[in-house]
Specification:
Largest interface: A-B, 34 and 31 residues
Mean pLDDT of chain A: 90
Distance between the termini of chain A: 36 Å
Shape of chain A: globular
Largest sheet of chain A: 7 strands, mixed
Radius of gyration of chain A: 14 Å
Helix content of chain B: under 10%
Number of helices of chain B: 0
Structural class of chain A: mainly beta
Number of strands of chain A: 11
Helix content of chain A: under 10%
Distance between the termini of chain B: 42 Å
Structural class of chain B: mainly beta
Oligomer: heterodimer
Number of strands of chain B: 12
Chain lengths: 119, 113
């Protein structure tokens, strides 16, 4: 079981370029969550997806950011026209079912993260 | 609203000595609390969790944490540090779904010979 796989692990982009981060959930997991960790801050929730559906995007910036989880293939977090403030570590987590209730975190499996650097 | 404060960004201990990583939280509801560990180039791994049962929680690798409601604390301890404990540790509070997980800023533990 390979766990949650994220790639690329490190990505460097110039301002104005596009960044695409991929996340393959654990085998058997159909729920994907993206978190962002800005420098000197804790991880912050961005978006929760199931196959072909965005369930909760309350943490996504309103512009330039989008996410998808197609029927086949990995989940993609896409950042258009990147700016220096987008430099961060982006973590993906997956679960076999919806995380709910106060004990929900124990069913999340996290990837190692993708570190985006915007020059 | 909820928040988590990890009081130390870096902690350095000698191998074989005790470890104390501090975490304070605030929450409007009865929270669940967690500690995660991230080793270099690895994903976040759940160390232990508190979900309103016993206030002293035992986790993996000899770690434990005590929930103290009066002090709003959930400090992580280990009696004797091992070199393999060197990692980043995150304290997390939850009052609902995955979108309601609040992470601390992390404490980097260094273990020296």
């Amino acid at each position: 079981n390979a766990g949650v796989m994220q790639n690329p692990r490190h990505l460097v982009r110039r301002r104005g370029q596009e960044a695409r981060l991929r996340c393959s959930p654990m085998k058997g997991h159909s729920h994907v969550y993206w978190y962002r960790q800005l420098p000197e801050e804790g991880l912050k929730f961005m978006v929760y997806l199931q196959k072909e559906n965005i369930i909760d995007e309350s943490g996504m910036p309103k512009e330039r950011f989008s996410a998808e989880f197609p029927k086949e293939g990995p989940s993609i977090l896409r950042i258009q026209q990147v700016v220096r403030g987008d430099s961060a570590a982006y973590f993906c987590a997956s679960s076999p079912r919806e995380v709910a209730g106060t004990s929900g975190a124990n069913v999340l499996t996290f990837g190692a993260g993708s570190r985006l650097t915007v020059l | 609203a909820q928040s988590v404060t990890q009081l130390d960004s870096h902690v350095s201990v000698s191998e074989g000595t005790p470890v104390l990583l501090r975490c304070n939280y605030s929450s409007s509801y009865s929270p669940s609390l967690f500690w995660y560990v991230q080793h270099p180039n690895k994903g976040l791994q759940l160390l232990l969790k508190y979900t309103s049962a016993a206030t002293l929680v035992k986790g993996i690798n000899g770690f434990e944490a005590e929930f103290k409601k009066s002090e709003t604390s959930f400090h992580l301890t280990k009696p004797s540090a091992h070199m393999s404990d060197a990692a980043e540790y995150f304290c997390v509070v939850s009052t609902g779904t995955a979108s309601k997980l609040t992470f601390g800023t992390g404490t980097r533990l260094q273990v020296t010979l």
